[in-house]
Amino acid sequence: MSDIETEGDAPVDHPKSAPEDRATAGPFDESEANPVRPYVDLGGVKVLPREGLNLRLEIEEGSKRVVAVGLDLAGSTLQVQPFAAPRSSGLWHEIREQIAGQIAKQGGTTTERDGAFGPELLAQIPVAGTADQAAQLRQARFIGVDGPRWFLRGVIAGKAAVDPEAAAQVEELFRSIVVVRGNTPMPPRDLIPLRMPATSTGAAIE
């Protein structure tokens, strides 16, 4: 899933959804990040390397553009996407409804709950079976944070979707991400451009 889909009439202004300590504990805006930390620069986001972290760039086949960053850590996965957002209002409240609707169309279910970053969706998503394996449900958590002129969405799967200890580790990883909105005018909901890192880094990258 790349750029966020829009449906219906003109968007309604919603309040921002973010932890009260977002500016000091993350996810960070580029202006709030520690400039001396050795981040991996992926354009729209920066990621802090750590032991055991594997970084994947998800490429859209037709356009060949990077549409998401996948982070694998200790049996869990975190997919992140940064989007442009209005200065004064948030996107997460409306986007949660759209995600729930899309998963329902696929035959899955979602439950909204309060999580580490505020409201989140706990989803059961159908996964097609194979000749040797029946179809099954995959559990995932959809999280989101509205920042200054950006929105950062995360999808958590694997151990961190069900195990509290693994979840805390991935939530801390999400907190450490820096969003680089830049000064280029962009319509709200457009994906902030992502790219391959310019130089070799300490993180394993696929």
Q: Could you characterize what this model shows?
A:
The protein is built from 3 helices and 12 strands, in the order H-E-E-E-E-E-E-H-E-E-E-E-H-E-E. It is an alpha+beta fold. The strands form 2 sheets. An 8-stranded mixed sheet has the order 7-8-9-10-6-5-4-12, with helices on both faces. The protein has a 4-stranded mixed sheet with strand order 1-11-3-2. The longest helix is centred in the middle third of the chain and has 14 residues, at 92-105. It is globular and about 50 Å long. 29% of the residues are buried.
Primary descriptors:
15% helix; four-stranded mixed beta sheet; eight-stranded mixed beta sheet; alpha+beta; globular
Q: How many distinct helices?
A: 3
Classify the secondary structure makeup into a structural class. Answer: alpha+beta
Percent of residues in helical segments? 10-25%
How much beta, percentage-wise? 25-35%
End-to-end separation in angstroms reads 19 Å
Topology, number of strands: 12
Which parts are unreliable, with pLDDT below 50 for 5 consecutive residues or more?
Answer: 1-10
Question: What Rg do the Cα atoms give?
Answer: 17 Å
Write the element-wise H/E pattern from the N-terminal end onward: HEEEEEEHEEEEHEE
Cross-sheet strand order for the largest sheet: 7-8-9-10-6-5-4-12
Principal-axes geometry comes out as globular
How is the biggest beta sheet arranged?
Answer: 8 strands, mixed
Average pLDDT metric:
89
